[in-house]
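Worked example (supplementary).
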Amino acid sequence: MALKVENLTVYYQTLRGDVHALEHATFQIADGEIMGLAGESGCGKTTLGHSLIVLFPPMKYIAGKVLLDGEELPIWDSERMNAYRFRKVSLIPQYAMNAMNPIRKIGKMIQELLESRGVDYREVLPELKRRLDLVSLSHEVLNMYPIELSGGMKQRMVMVISSLLNPSLLIADEITSALDVATQKAVAEMLVEFRDCQFVNTMIVVTHDISILYQIADSILIMYAGVLAEKAPTQSIIESPRHPYTRMLISSLPEVGVRHADKRLSGIPGNPPLLLNPPTGCRFRDRCPLAYERCLEEPPFLEIEKDHYVACWKEFESHA
Amino acid sequence: MLRLDNVSKVYRIGAFGGKALYAVNNVSFEVHKGEVVSLIGESGSGKSTIGKMILRLLDVTEGKITYNGEDISTFKGETLKNYYRQVQGVFQDPFSSYNPIFKADRIFEILREEFFPNIPIPEWQHRVKNALVSVGLNPAHVLNKYPYQLSGGQLQCFLIARALLLDIQFLVADEIISMLDASTRIDVLNLLADLKSRGLSILFITHDLSLAYYISERAVILYKGYVVERGAVEKIFHTPLHPYTRMLMDSIPRLDRKWEKGTTLLERKIEEFRGGCPYYERCPVAEKICAIYRPSLTEVDTDHFVACVHYEPSTNLLGAPAYTEQRTSQSGLG
Amino acid sequence: MKKRNEVLYFALRNKKLLIGSGIILIFLLLAWVGPAFAKYKPFDYANPLGAEPPSTEYWFGTTFFGQDVFSQFVNGLRATFIVGLLGGGLGTLVGMIIGFAAGYRGGILDEILNAFTNIVLVIPTLAVLLIIAAYLQVRSLLMECLFIGLTAWPWAARAIRAQTFSLRTRDFVDLARLSGMKPYKIVRREIAPNMMSYLVLVFILQFGGAILTAATLDFIGLGPTNAISLGLMMQYAVLWGALPLGMWWWFVPPGLAITAIVGALYSMNVGLDEIFNPKLREM
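After joint prediction of all chains, the assembly is encoded as:
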């Protein structure tokens, strides 16, 4: 297993108390696996993604363990994590396109970044150029300022930078959401390409767009209100989802080629619970059409078929 | 009902405003009563600019927008207010549409102040509650709250309810669901469809062809400010003609089919480009003539127009060596 | 409500703000009730013996001419606060009008106002004040406030214009326009409340700036001719050799007060900045 997360719990500290953004997350990712991480906004998917690389206040580590290639990551200790960031774990943040320093030439910026990690720029340069070719960026971009690049070019540039030191785990946080469909497709395909070229061992692709995950991910993890709801190979999630939330989520996606006049799709009624004082038991209970007394207890996240994990009492019942 | 005739929006750029930048170029279309028309394009295509011009938030540089036969640029004072009674907009970012320091329901109070100062407050509150119920919200749950206490979907429904309190005839819905969660998106979309069946006309601005297909009758595809294809949504969806529309169709992530590998993203060298087809630099089937000749919209089928030399019967393609061999494609990646 | 409570919570925990406003309050109180306790009028030759260090009779001592320093000080303090309030207030007001108009309207009006702002900005303010002040024989405190207010607004206008510019493009402003709101009302009801904290900061800086300018003017003898002020006290002190003669009680109180007030205002400014800007907050 490339990545093993056990019982990871992270809260946000606010004046009104702790927000239980991520609780008891336990899952693993195999070598070479691209795992999609999906859910509604505020479900904790970004918290999970970020906690594997950088926990900054008001995020607070509560419990849990993260093993990357068998080695435990000291995610609660920002100083010690420095040794792993960028080399072993890397992140493409949501607004990476705008995070680049506007008054630094891109090449210079990469050089500084590498030097801060104790890597010689000149040694890496040939490989850097090779990768620029791969994503069809001209070598000229190294002498350009970020403002001279289009949105899609910036996103590709950031992808090259984040994966330059061949990290074992790359976390891509909503990197396709701000792009138009054509660029979206190209960027998503590049992620797969990077894995295939073994620049990156495993990937977590955080997005709210399940249809993109269907195109590129090997497995999908669905989160709901700070807890894991279901994880399975992509095909199983899409074709035979087990958690009621996953099912409703998928059926609420506008299918391509469906018209309102012919078939009226429906959303999920209600809203996710507030995580300041999350309800006990199953957090989807209030919106779930199948809820019964057992759901007052929190369901564990169990493997009901090979590689198919789900947290739902109804499912356990039918498999018992 | 609402009609755009050769509308352009020009920005003056450069040191002395010497260069003209066409954000919208010679766009014409019409929205009939009780009809949903989708305006489809990527960012920078000019789709939001058109919405803002219809809402009189931006001035039209060239051409004319008419509402029930009247030029909207002539409206001012009371006539403009009367226009706003019938024509309203909802925007992309629900959180930006609310003043963050006030409660969300303040938008209704402002509406009363500006449009219905004579209606007594209890009567108005009754109307607000009815409007909220009709957009599927529970007034007890959503009134008296700050924007950050409500979800994006609730906020968007609030804005639609706000429009319903007026004598609304035409709604500009600018990417109103693109920032919402999947689980609430469809509800807002259905709400629009219900309004349509009650006789409302909607301009649905989106970058997503599948959403446009779900809800609208007709579609207008924009690229860099130009209309490249326009017509009945079924025709565009099932037989997309313009290479750009086809590329859009192929790039939609769908749950029933995987992408074909290899995206044509790359930009063609545009040295020889002299005011030709706007899609020239990205077009996989461009001819030499496309660099210098800009095709006009041609009706290839009833209510199906496209602006591409390949569908222009009079264009002489002979004598121009095809560019197909030099096509740059991303396939080297895959 | 919650948001307001949060601001209050951080405000009560912010030492810079508390200390700053504490100092201002003490001086304000002194300026308000002080004159009632003064036994003499500021310009009365109270002490026939001339200069004397502080004593029970003359709390802050007396000047070279036997005038009561305490009386001059508390009355001068009053003048200083009036200048700060009126001069700073006028500067803020003009800055707001021009900043909002330029920022909200944009286009040609913005260009004209911007050019005007830049012209006023590059005019050497002090030199102009010198000329104007020299031409007027009788100068009142209000006149001084007017001079200061009308020359100090440019940077405030620029800052407000920039803020308005960024707020104007927000969707809620578009929505207000779709509600048929008039521009003035949009600025007042939608834009200004959003930059309230910013406007408070602008006012505080204008307040401090006006006090300093007034002290400078008074010190070089171009202040009000018919009233006492802290700057004027310093001028007299220097003029009559208080420094070489070691009459510290004459110049220390006004000097200290000006330094303390302006310092406290800037401390408040930094404190407020930390409160309103969540990124600067200390958890």
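Two points are worth noting when inspecting this output. The first strand of chain B starts at residue 2 and ends at 13. Chain B has a mean pLDDT of 86.
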